[in-house]
Amino acid sequence: MSNEVFGKKRPEDEHEPRPDRFLEQDRRSAEQRSAAIAYLAWPLAAFERWAPREGGSDWYAFHIRQALWFGNVAALAMLLALVWPVVLAALIANIQATLWIYGVAFLQDIALMTVWLLWALRYARRTAQGEFFTVPFLARWTGSPSPKC
To answer: In the chain, pLDDT over 70 holds for what percent of residues?
Structure first.
């Protein structure tokens, strides 16, 4: 196999090590991307929490823990939003009341999904920019931010 592509040396053939500052910058940007995605897809935060990356920063660990709790609370809220109309409709044997209950529940589901999506996008954007913040209603479970993060 030739060592040249279009008259230039292939990058993988150059064995000069990258400076440590570039490796640190790559690690930091990869952590920011992973933590930001975890707010939108919390099962990724669960995977990162139980199989942590080697050499991950405290900032990254805090955001993964916070994203996991954010996802857990959101999943619980959506589950309750889906269950309450079933329970109430089972208790009320009136068809017209059941239709109204499901109509209200549908509007509530849309509102909850919109609020969750806006919060998740906001937290993901802030995390992708490297910001260190605490989600107010999660501070009880995630702990207070450490000054060394």
So the answer is: 78
Give the DSSP H/E element, type plus range, for residue 8. Answer: strand 8-9
What is the sign of the dihedral through the CA atoms of 71, 77, 83 and 85?
negative
- CA-to-CA separations, 60 to 50, 68, 126, in angstroms, rounded: 14, 12, 13
Other CB atoms closer than 10 Å to residue 46's CB: what's the count? 16
pTM of the prediction?
0.73
Per-residue pLDDT tens digits for 78-116: 999 999 999 999 999 899 999 999 999 999 999 999 999
17-41 burial: b if 16+ Cβ within 10 Å, else e: eeeeeeeeeeeeeebbebbbbbbbe
